[in-house]
Amino acid sequence: MEATSMSASSRFSISRGICSSSAATAPAKRRLDVTPASGVIGRRGLSQRVLRFAVRAQRSEAKDSPGIPSPMSDSIANCIEVREWEMGKTIDEIAASQGITIRRRPPTGPPQHYVGPFEFRLQNEGNTPRNILEEIIWNKDVEVSQMKERRSLVMLKKALENAPPVRDFVGALRASYERTDMPALIAEVKKASPSRGVLREDFDPVQIASAYEEGGAACLSVLTDKKYFQGSFENLEAIRNAGIKCPLLCKEFIIDPWQLYCARSKGADAVLLIAAVLPDVDIKYLTKICKILGLVALVEVHNEREMDRVLGIDGIQLIGINNRNLETFEVDISNTKKLLGGARGEAIRERGIIVVGESGLFTPSDIAYVQEAGVKAVLVGESLVKQSDPSKGIAGLFGKDISK
Q: For this UniProt entry, which residues form the secretion signal (predicted)?
């Protein structure tokens, strides 16, 4: 069945999880569209036909576009989400079954409505974000769609030819831990946050990155979200081009493979994936693309259920434990100890996974606490970027100079 024979209302785009990167570069006759408001991938009676069509399209595109994996192959094709899609479930229903409360987009569409020349804002539970993370994700969904229109995946793949070589992010963390016998530092280049506002008015990303490196940081994290954190991919690129030797983590709210290609083209060596946002099939697919691009994924969790989900995925090298409650934004570093106890901690040690402590780390005692819990790296931003001399701030955080 050719897509050109479908009516506009019956076309689907698998833009989430299983087919998003290929859809970006596929010819129009291969494009499969998701119903915009609900995110339904397939409807009852049509879903199996749509998925078979997707498989054929993916195989064909994989031949035409080396470097884009076919997500419908191997274990991904057999995972539970695909079977649930075949039964007509929406992406939010699948996410909810995995304990994910963050909805990918407004279930009832945007709140703006137009009557003639007038605009009305009709808010309800279906078009109002429940918390700041959901608001960020909804905005990111629109932002990425616009960015993809300006710069296609084909253009990004071409840019990869001139991208700087990937550096060993995991290796840098291990080397720092062995050298200092303290958690390796991923120092964050961040101008602002939704909860704290502007953290540093005289913000020079390259200067801050250089100070972090001088102070003993093993790696750097660079915020690229513009609306909520006042970051940019240009900051990431500027730091890489400035000759900073520390491997770079692209700190972005990733929901689409396009963002991975963009991050790599700007010089990233690692990316952040958030389990509170991404269902298992998305994490599997995105980490598969990361492997092809040479990127390492830092998969962030907040609670036991997310930790169990991530430990059930093969090939994970880095797990970040965020001590911040996504609903209340309260921070409790004992969350790290709770998630690393018992069988979970044992599984992490057996598999050689590096755990990164995130949020709420301000003093040497905080660092000692999470290290005793099993953390081998920490990601710290606010307490360092606000210092007039971030390199001295690092020494204060660890209680000693870790640069030597």
A: none
Tokens found for residue 260: 């991975």
149-154-160 Cα angle (round to 5): 115
236 close to 133: Cβ distance less than 8 angstroms: no
C-alpha to C-alpha distance for 292 and 193, rounded to whole angstroms: 32
Give the phi and the psi of residue 320 in degrees, each rounded to 5.
-100, 135
CA-to-CA distance for 268 and 168, rounded, in angstroms?
Answer: 11
**Tens digit of pLDDT per residue, the chain (404 long)?**
333 333 333 322 333 333 333 333 333 333 333 333 333 333 333 334 333 434 333 443 444 444 555 444 445 555 666 656 555 677 778 888 999 989 888 877 665 656 666 665 556 566 788 888 999 999 999 999 999 999 999 999 999 999 999 999 999 999 999 999 999 999 999 999 988 899 999 999 999 999 999 999 999 999 999 999 999 999 999 999 999 999 999 999 999 999 999 999 999 999 999 999 999 999 999 999 999 999 999 999 999 999 999 999 999 999 999 999 877 778 999 999 999 999 999 999 999 999 999 999 999 999 999 999 999 999 999 999 999 999 999 999 999 999 98
- Output the DSSP codes for 336-381: HHHHTSHHHHHHHHHHTPEEEEESS--SHHHHHHHHHHT-SEEEE-
* Distance of alpha carbon 143 from alpha carbon 256, whole angstroms: 11
| pTM across the whole model | 0.80
CA 376-379-385 angle, 5° bins = 140
Region of 172 on the Ramachandran plot (φ > 0 left; ψ -120 to 50 alpha; else beta): alpha
Determine contact, residues 319/274, Cβ cutoff 8 Å. no
d(CA 381, CA 191): 9
Nearest to 224 by CA among 179, 260, 276, 183: 260
Half-sphere exposure of 331 (CA within 13 A, CB side): 11
Contacts of 174 (CB under 8 A, 6+ apart): 184, 354, 376
Nearest to 35 by CA among 92, 81, 98: 92
As a whole number of Å, the CA-based R_g of the chain is 21
- Distance, in Å, from the CA atom of 9 to the CA atom of 35, rounded to the nearest integer, reads 9
